[in-house]
Amino acid sequence: MPQPDLTAELTAALARRILVLDGAMGTTIRAYGLTEADARGTRFAQTEKDLLNNGDILSLTRPDVIGDIHKRFYEAGSDICETNTFSATSIAQSEFFVDDPREHGGRKDPEFFQKIIDTPFLNQLAWEMNVESSRLCRKWADDIGSDTGRKRYVAGAIGPLTVSLTNSPDANDHAFRVVTFDQVLEAYKHQIRGLIEGGCDILMIETIFDSLNAKAAAVAVQEVFAEAKLRLPIIISAAVGLGGETMISAQKVEAFWNAFAHTHPLAIGLNCSLGPDLMRPHLEELSDCATTHVSCYPNAGLPNPLAPTGFDLDPQHMHDFMAEFADAGLLNLAGGCCGNTPEHVAAIARAVANRKPREVPAIG
Q1: Cα–Cα distances in Å, from 299 out to 19, 68, 124, 157, 274?
Q2: How far apart are CA 159 and CA 188, in angstroms?
């Protein structure tokens, strides 16, 4: 089980140096040239829908690949790696295993998603994905930590889901939602229990595009903590648009901080969506208002189908941007999202290695 003093331990580490997160699981997976047969394995060989884009399933069907990716990121200098569980909920996995009623003249609605929440197959699948992904990352954190003499940590990745609690998809019924808060809450609680069972150190609610979805995740975290009589550090990270707004709920950065400050996160930050140059002003705003540690793991620039990783920036670019962010006093944790390979993370680790972490403002 996770250690009870991890928040104090990580807070002390963050006072000494900028900690390094990992990079993009999806980008790195693509470099392995896996096929549909790899994703399915024998267990899911008869599944009707394609699974190759279901990266989380690889923790069950190709754990050797996912383990190797964790190993490479830790060896590149990551202090914290995320579990391969971005979409490991019954709600998100239903996209790969359940017929879409919209293809037959129906619609997705709370009745549909209640059936999803109640489906034993999807619940068992989500449980296994989270437990096994957490165990897999834990193994490499412990192995690399032991080999190098520097402790490594596992962050249980809790993604944004494929549905929105904020917006209605029905132009004629603005009150309609495809899913309820309680359904999202239950799916997240199931995921969180699995991540903890597998041995993660941190829970990371990330790539937030809908703040109400993230609120459900935050409530789920607190309820699981109360049930299990434990508490782990939490990191909360939003994906923002060009104007610094969460892309569906349209919360600006300061409002985002105010909405989650009561959860007392170890860190709050920005990830995905933008390259570091476009993220800079929004990171500055967050750094100015947040009274906790700040994390940043942007995409490697904007998408570019002609680039080897699908994104514009190479490792040296990420090195230079993160060094600049660190010199400006904006960083406590640094890493990369889409387009960032282990080589990018190694460059980021070098960039922040001898730079002072951002000073956390005193609450007063």
Answers
A1: 18, 22, 32, 17, 6
A2: 9
Domains of the chain: 6-352 (3.20.20.330)
3-state secondary structure at position 84: coil
* Cβ atoms < 10 Å from Cβ of 248: 19
Going by C-alpha positions, the residue among 230, 251, 231, 229 that lies closest to residue 240 is 251
Query: Running DSSP on this structure, what letter comes out for residue 170?
Result: -
On whether the CB atoms of residues 73 and 22 are closer than 8 A, the answer is yes
Residue 9 one-letter amino acid: E
CA distance 275 to 321: 10
Residue 20: closest CA among 357, 360, 348, 355? 348
Q: How much is the pLDDT for 292?
A: 98
Bridge partners for 298 per DSSP: 272
Report the amino acid identity of residue 56. Answer: D
Q: What is the pLDDT of residue 248?
A: 75
pLDDT given at position 295: 98
Beta-ladder partners of 156: 203
Tokens of 321: 């941007």
In this predicted structure, what is the pLDDT of residue 82? Answer: 98
- CA 178, distance to chain mean position in Å, is 23
What does the alpha-carbon distance between residue 318 and residue 323 come to, in Å, rounded to a whole number? Answer: 8
Burial class of 113 by CB neighbour count within 10 A (0 to 12, 13 to 18, 19+): buried
Helices (H) and strands (E) in the chain, counts: 14, 8
Model-level pTM?
0.95
Tokens describing residue 302: 């904007």
Residue 89: HSE in the Cβ half-sphere, 13 Å Cα cutoff: 28
Which residues of the chain fall below pLDDT 50? 1-3
pLDDT digits (tens, 9 = 90+) for 249-279: 788 999 999 999 999 999 999 999 889 999 9
Classify residue 59 as left (phi > 0), alpha (psi -120 to 50) or beta. Answer: alpha
